[in-house]
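Bench log. Compound arrived from synthesis this morning; before running ITC I wanted a structural hypothesis for how zinc ion sits in the protein. Inputs:
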Amino acid sequence: MQNVDKLVNPLIFHPYEEQYDSTELVRESMSVLPAWMQPMLTWLTAKPIHLKAKVERSAWSHLCSTLCMLIAGVSITYLSFNSNWYYLLPLSLVLTVSGMRKLQVVIYHHCSHNSVLKTKTANSILGETISIILAIKNFKNYQKDHMVHHNAHGLLTSRDETVQDLEKVGLIPGQAKSNLYLRLYLSFVSPLIHLRLIWGRFKATFLSNNYQHNLLAICFWSLLCFTVNILHAWAFFLVAWVFPLTILYHISRTLRLLVEHTWTNDISERNRDFIAATTIAVFCGEALPCVGRNNYKKIVAYTYWSIKMMTVHLFFRVFVLVGDTPCHDFHHRNPSSKEWLSYIYAREKDQQLVKERGQFLYKETWGFLAAIERNLSAMSQARGLYERS
Ligand SMILES: [Zn+2]
Ligand SMILES: [Zn+2]
């Protein structure tokens, strides 16, 4: 059965996966690496070695880094268009999607909890602006739906937006795992699925129940299209903005939704423990291999590990698990906390407190593909939790 799984998703296998019994030791294994590498590893994995190295971040730093990512992505696309540097295009598109996703899944999301800017009005204005720029659900509707997602009785039911969005691409709990993998791959390439999602976003942007939102969206998008027309920049606009905002955005979003929560049969009562059991951190990275004193083996193993960290794990951190999404478990335990700004350290601190208090422990998965594998297994056995209203 395991071999079948590896055929379906060959990337999940790596030779060091069985060396560490406890996932808590994965980040610990990297402590032998030089001190200058640690801040980068802390960001990449979203897990610190210790709390002493805490870096405080502000809402503005998150907002600025998101906008910089977007500007860098669009600028590099422009460069690759005008200098025949087409090989830069994949990088520029990944950066653009990363910026767009961070704008939605981090800034817009935390605005709905009123935990980005100081006042409720400022958070609403920012959230509404993002919803128009990204052509997504209007902010007030999102805020209402998102509260259902945070309710223990709403989470992972048919009223939950995460379950609804997965259903839109054919990912429904209770299907065989191989079928779920097939539907996931299909959701990346199917023109029908993308067109359906685009139509849904079109309706949410221009035909929502909020007329003021619709009017503002029509003004913004008309002005944008008018400017593009004046500049004769349709080809550039389609590649630099529309393609990452639609196809690539949908792929990133589906992957993220799949690992956002997991399904469990362990807890029948819907309470705080149910939320904790269904929300597991997903860290991008894997344990540094233990290879003894043989220098040749060490060089080979460390080179393999470094390449994987800087390709596979970095890609998923930038393309899918942007901002505080690896620590989504901390957010569900502390939904309105402003501590999310320094999420890496906030989660670590809370994890230690939870241990001391004897509460439901935090759990973690290392490697995005391992999280997909685990969640699709759980999803295929989750018939009982998926109640339709
Ligand atoms: Zn969630
Ligand atoms: Zn939330």
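What the model suggests: Residues 1-21 have pLDDT under 50 and may be disordered. DSSP finds 17 helices and two strands in the chain.
ITC booked for Thursday regardless.
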